[in-house]
Amino acid sequence: EAQVTQNPRYLITVTGKKLTVTCSQNMNHEYMSWYRQDPGLGLRQIYYSMNVEVTDKGDVPEGYKVSRKEKRNFPLILESPSPNQTSLYFCASTARGGGRNEQFFGPGTRLTVL
Amino acid sequence: AQKVTQAQTEISVVEKEDVTLDCVYETRDTTYYLFWYKQPPSGELVFLIRRNSFDEQNEISGRYSWNFQKSTSSFNFTITASQVVDSAVYFCALSEDYGQNFVFGPGTRLSVLP
Fold first, then answer.
1. Which of A97, A99, A107 sits opposite B102 (nearest CB)?
2. CA distances (Å), B14 to each of B81, B82, B89, in order?
3. Tell me, what's the pLDDT at A40?
4. A residues 51..70 contacting B (CB < 8 A)
């Protein structure tokens, strides 16, 4: 089954404790992205990757890091989480052609930073 | 810069009523893509439709229809004979060609009452 998986689905942590949210896709997609969803703001792009070892900032990259060492994986790293990073996070992948194609979204990770 | 506006924050209708969700976009690109996604209460994001900037034909899929008008930069979504299962948050999104700059609107929460 074609899918994007994210782990964990739910996470409660404390300020400053480093965390990683994993994302994996099995569709051999070149493009992958991370978004955060906040009430009234829709989804905002954090980082994206157009291929292995190629990443770039989206609209709200501050406080986040990503890496793309393998085509299928695109982890999101919060080195020192803060309460304003409490949000619902989505990973997405897209086939070659980027913006021409619909994105396939993971199930979401609800993060709470205390 | 690209921007998507969904002026309707929340809409409530009674089952079997028709409802139109508005989407207005801004872009300087001549080639771009427009999308609608549905987010039901369970939280996942479901792709509904993609339309490219060169194709202004309206599209109908069952009870769903989309009206794309470049002259007014709008891509509106109509649900005919709404059902309770249509209750969800609906997002309109805009992307550039090839790139990964997907911009989402803030979403419209649709409640269909029995």
1. A99
2. 9, 8, 16
3. 85
4. 56, 58-59
What pLDDT, in 10s, does the model give residues A19-47?
999 999 999 999 999 999 998 889 999 99
Residue B11 is encoded by which pair of tokens? 């809409």
Question: Comparing C-alpha atoms, which of A77, A69, A99, A92 is closest to residue A3?
Answer: A92
Burial class of residue B78 (count of CB atoms within 10 Å of its CB; 0-12, 13-18, 19+): middle
Q: Distance (Å, rounded) from C-alpha A3 to C-alpha A37?
A: 20
Euclidean distance between CA atoms B89 and A74, whole angstroms: 26
Cβ of A45 within 8 Å of Cβ of B99? The answer is no
Kindly calculate the radius of gyration of chain A based on its CA atoms and give it in whole angstroms. Answer: 13
Rounded average pLDDT over B70-94: 96
